[in-house]
Specification:
Strand order of the largest sheet: 2-3-1-4
Number of domains: 1
Shape: elongated
Order of helices and strands: EHEEHE
Oligomer: single chain
Mean pLDDT: 93
CATH architecture: 2-Layer Sandwich
CATH topology: Alpha-Beta Plaits
CATH superfamily: ACT domain
CATH class: Alpha Beta
Distance between the termini: 38 Å
Length: 90
Amino acid sequence: MTAPKEEKLLDFPCDFPIKMMGREQPEFRDAAVALIERHTGKIRSDAIRTALSRNGNFLSVTIMIKAQSQQQLDDIYSDLTEHEEILVAL
């Protein structure tokens, strides 16, 4: 009997959005972009979208990357969840 094949959820390379949320402070956006660039290289400004929360206390930053592998995504999310400026990473 053979083991079932693992189902691939993504075909790499692929476009992949990474969304982060943090407090509305100048350091947050810069930290979010720098963390992603460590894994992807320079990010074009048109690949970055931001949105303020209703009361203006929080900022979401979404960065569209060209993901090269599942390992790359795992490494990115590991760094994001460990960083104190990043409250939520999706």
